[in-house]
Every structure is written in C-alpha cells, then in structure tokens.
Amino acid sequence: MTVEFEEPTFNLTAAIVGWIVPGAGHWKVGQTARGWLILLGVGGLFLLGVLVGGVDCVDRREDGMWFIAQAGAGGLAFATDGLNTMFLKSGRVGELLPLAVQSGTVMVSSFKGAGPSNEIGTLLCGLAGMMNVIAVLDVLYRSTPTVSANSSASNGAFE
Predict the structure, then answer these.
(1) Over residues 36-50, mean pLDDT
(2) How far apart are the first and last CA of the chain?
(3) Distance CA 139, CA 98 (A)
(4) pLDDT of residue 8
(5) Angle between the N-to-C axes of helices 116-140 and 75-83, in degrees from 0 to 180, rounded to the nearest 10
(6) Within 10 A of 59 (CB to CB), how many other CB atoms are there?
(7) Where are the domains of the chain?
(8) Cα separation of 82 and 87, whole Å?
(9) Which of 28, 115, 119, 121 fits a 20 to 30 Å CA distance from 2?
(10) How many CB atoms lie within 10 A of CB 118?
C-alpha cells in the first residue's frame, strides 16, 4: 500500500467548526485521533483554568484583553463568560457586595475570585485559547492522506 497526500486545500468550514468546538475541525477532515487529542488538550487546559481561577476568570467586560486570547477556545470561552454573567454578576449565586472604587461604588459577587489563583486561571484559559487558534490554523490547510493499494507491496507496510 502507498500513502499519498492530496494537495492541501483551504478548509474554511473545518476551521470554523474547529474554533467553535476544539478538535471538531480535525474530525471533519477525517483525523479523529488528532481531533480527540486537541479536545483533550485545549478542553483540559481550559477546565483546569476554570477550576483554579473560578468561573469569573473568563470575563469579557472586566478582562477584555485576556478575553481576546480566551476567545480562541471558541464555545468554551463564550459559554463560561455567559455562566459568569448569568449567575455571578446577576447575584443568582452568592450575594452582591458593595465595593468602593475611585468612581463610586460597584456591586460584586461574593464569589468573585481575587488574588494569584484567579490570575493563574485567567492565564491558563488564555493559553487554551491560543492553543486552539494553532489547531484551527493547522486544520485550515490540512491535507488528508489517502491509502491506495499497490500491487508491488505484498506485505501491507508503508513505503
């Protein structure tokens, strides 16, 4: 058998799907093992960041620059930001406490993360987003291998 590679094509649909769900773009082009590894790596790093820093380590309003990096994780980042807004910032979970700032008083959740653990969680989620951007760029021009039977290779090994 001979392994031949097709000319790399522009897989925009696979890239969009891979951005929304990490690894799904590689599933779409037929590389399921690579897709599962990407989902495990990006999803695991993002989950670790949320577990270390709390749900509020992903916040597009208060940490806008960090959210740009975190948004690379696609649906994971936007879902986590939605949970943060829906539950913590609205006061559904915990109580809203007044916090004095220079411009007046703002209300923050009693579950608001602070300190190094929140910063490390923010960093880990940002790194997960950047890893997924690399995976999306990989699937954008990914060529899929095709295996063809060759009469001269009787042992079935790759040449």
Answers:
(1) 97
(2) 8
(3) 47
(4) 74
(5) 150
(6) 21
(7) 2-145
(8) 8
(9) 28
(10) 17
pLDDT tens per residue, range 68-126 = 999 999 999 999 999 998 988 887 777 777 777 777 776 776 667 778 999 999 999 99
User: Tokens 């411009």 — which residue?
Assistant: 103
Mean pLDDT within 56-74: 93
In the chain, the amino acid numbered 111 is: F
Range 124-136 average pLDDT: 98
DSSP conformation letters of the chain: -EEEEPPP---HHHHHHHHHSTTHHHHHTT-HHHHHHHHHHHHHHHHHHHHHH-GGGS-TTTSHHHHHHHGGGTHHHHHHHHHIIIIITTTSSS-EEEEEETTEEEEEETT---SHHHHHHHHHHHHHHHHHHHHHHHHHTPPPEEEE--TT--S----
The answer to whether residue 143 scores a pLDDT higher than 60 is yes
> Residue 102 corresponds to which tokens in the numbers above?
């220079």
Q: What residues contact residue 71 under an 8 Å CB cut-off, 6+ apart?
A: 60, 77, 78, 129
